[in-house]
Each structure stands twice: as C-alpha cells, then as structure tokens.
Automatic annotation (TrEMBL):
3'-phosphoadenylyl sulfate binds at K70, G71, G72, T73, R74, R151, S159, K276, G277, R278, P279, H280. It is a single-pass type II membrane protein. Its main location: membrane. The lineage of its organism: Eukaryota, Metazoa, Chordata, Craniata, Vertebrata. It holds the Pfam family Sulfotransfer_1. It is an enzyme of class 2 (transferase). Belongs to the sulfotransferase 1 family. This is Sulfotransferase. It comes from Lates calcarifer. It is found in: Endomembrane system; Golgi apparatus membrane. The active site is at K70. GO terms for molecular function: [heparan sulfate]-glucosamine 3-sulfotransferase activity. Disulfide bonds join C259-C271.
C-alpha cells in the first residue's frame, strides 16, 4: 500500500476529526448533516426510532481512486474529504486485490454511512496494476467512476524507491534494481517501481471492462502546482458542487507541496505527514535519462489513449 493509510494529515488518515466534517463554507444544513453522520449508535437518542439507522446507510463506493502508488492519491483523497458530500474510507481497503475472498458484504461494511446526495469513496492505488481488479470492480458495478492519479513515471519510480529505502535501509542502489543488465542498459520491468509506471499497459487491462468516460486521469504534478484547478476537474467528474477551491490551500515551502488551510476550530493547518515529501536520493543522470527513454513510447501511447498530454517528455 502507499503508506498504509497515508500516515499524516493530523488524523492518521483514519476517522475524520469533527472539525473536518462540515467543510469550510458548507451550508448549515450540510454541516449539521455531516456532524450527525459522524455520530455512533451509542450517541443517538434512544427514544427516536428513526435515528436507529445511524444516519444514512453503507453503500458500495460510487467512485474509487484506483492508482497510482506515489502519484498523489493520499493528497487527492484528503483534499476531497473537505467536501461535505464526500464520505471516504481513511485506510486503504485493498479489497479488489488482497481481500476479495472476504466477499462484497465485508467490503460494504467497511464503508462510512452516507446520506442522500453524498458519495462513498475509497482509494487503493495498487488496484490499477492488479490483473483481476477491473473484472472484480465491474462485477460490483459497471457504473463505478475510476480516478487515476498519474505522475511522471521516472520521478514516480524514484519516489517509490525512496519509500522502500526508508523501510529497508539495506536496499541495493536504484540503478542496481532498475537495470537487468547495466552494460546493455536493459531495464528490469519485473521491478515493481519500474512496472507501475508503464501506465498504457495497465490502462489497457481496465479498458477491457470500462469505457474511457468512466475514468478521470489526474495529473500528480498539477495537484501540486494547481491543486484548486485539478480539484475543480475532480469535483465536476464526480458530479459535486465545486466546494473545494483555492481558498482551501496554501503552498508549504518546506514540504514543497500544497497543504490545507486550517479549518475553523482546529489548532493547525493539515499537511501530509512525515512519510510524504521525503528528499529523494541522488541518482546518476545517465540512469534517469535511460529510464526516460524507456518510458517515452509508453507515455506517448498513454497520451493517445487518454487524449491528454501530461508533458512528461
């Protein structure tokens, strides 16, 4: 998983803190609705039968962030959770790749309760590269909206390596893992850090089940340079009012990416945790150039497939 639920944002990426609930400029009704939907059964007045459903019901996600690891999926999910009409699972469920045998009811039970007009979401970036995932999601619902956060595959690979290195310091060098043969410069596509970035190949697998119109491709780079613009596209795609706008973000110079301004009543702004924005190791430029050459044809094919030039070349 990419960070086991994201490690950060002041709430461990898990249950939402109350101050996050009714978004910044949400209408009073949706604010109340949000706060109510956060109540647990034990908080509910026992004399009112209608409250016994815990406010709302658990539904299968209408939208899933299916990829990609180290692309910006945690940031996207946390930005989306500001929206009063988005309810999301904090941790990554990994249902369609690891726990599919537990069954759909188990999966639905992981979901937060939603009210009329709210959408249920989850994110598990490894779905994008999982062979069986498209068929499994399709058999849950062919109408599921799929969001893929993509980022320059070379920087994505380095970021992936950096994360693994922080967990296993004895790792071989990046170039040792990236090349099957250093003399010939043959890239080792079996290394997951390399394989994940061959986006065209993974997308082909998904397009056997879902039409292109079901997908939104979010630029991981633009999520950093223009979070509000990219969030506008995401909210439109999800059929949501544009609630999350530039007034929610400020750029954190130290981390090098946008953070959420502090919601009223909370003590501090929310930034992604220590596991995000780590400094990358120095990698020889000829290694990166070779990797760039390797990815170029796949990138071009991906631009053609999606009708969107991400400008990585």
């Amino acid at each position: 998983s990419d960070g086991k639920g994201g490690g950060g944002w002041g709430d461990g990426g898990g249950v939402e803190a109350p101050e996050q609930l009714g978004a910044y400029n949400a209408s009073p009704a949706s604010l109340v609705r949000e706060q109510l939907s956060g109540l647990t059964h034990s908080d509910a007045p026992s004399n009112n039968i209608s409250i016994a459903n815990n406010f709302g019901s658990k539904k299968f996600p209408q939208a899933i962030i299916i990829g990609v690891k180290k692309g910006g999926t945690r940031a996207l999910l946390e930005f989306l959770r500001i929206h009063p009409d988005v309810r999301a699972v904090g941790a990554e469920p990994h249902f369609f790749d690891r726990f599919y045998d537990k069954g759909l009811e188990w999966y639905r039970n992981l979901m937060p309760r939603t009210l009329e007009g709210q959408i249920t979401m989850e994110k598990t970036p490894s779905y994008f590269i999982t062979k069986e995932a498209p068929r499994r999601v399709f058999s849950m619902s062919r109408h599921t909206k799929l969001i893929v956060v993509v980022r320059d595959p070379v920087t994505r690979a380095v970021s992936d390596y950096t994360q693994t290195l922080s967990k296993s310091p004895g790792l071989p060098s990046f170039q040792n893992l990236a090349f099957r043969n250093a003399t010939t410069g043959l890239i080792d596509t079996s290394w997951s850090a390399v394989r994940i970035g061959i986006y065209a190949k993974h997308l082909e697998n998904w397009l056997r089940f879902f039409p292109l119109s079901r997908f939104l491709f979010v630029s991981g780079e633009r999520l950093v340079t223009d979070p509000a613009g990219e969030m506008g596209r995401v909210q439109d795609f999800l059929g949501l009012k544009r609630v999350v706008t530039d007034k929610h973000f400020y750029f954190n110079q130290t981390k090098g990416f946008p953070c959420l301004k502090k919601p009223e009543g909370s003590s501090r702004p929310r930034c992604l945790g220590k596991s995000k924005g780590r400094p990358h190791p120095q990698i020889p430029s000829e290694v990166l150039l070779r990797l760039r050459d390797f990815y170029r044809p796949f990138n071009l094919k991906f631009y053609q497939m999606t009708g969107h030039n991400f400008g990585w070349d």
